[in-house]
Amino acid sequence: MITDDTGLIHGGFTFSLADFAAMLAVNHPNVVLGGANVNFLKPVVEGDIIIAEAQVVNPKEKKLVVKVNVKKDDESVFSGEFFCYTPKYHVLKRES
Length: 96
Description:
The chain is of the alpha+beta class and 96 residues long.
């Protein structure tokens, strides 16, 4: 399920890496993803090593915008903006 019969990696795995990088950039225990605007720029195939870099561009706002770039070698294969929120309480816990 990770690849098709040609070795092409399903885009969801690249998106998942980018999402995880965005969550790490926010670095808050209650961070949640509210939405994303992304572009798949080049294919990723089995055996490729991809690295995601993320940066919060507006750290003092309520809705955080995180820019993420995923590269293979020095070439961008994915880019996006992730819209994150940091609620006071975890989304699965009631207020205390």
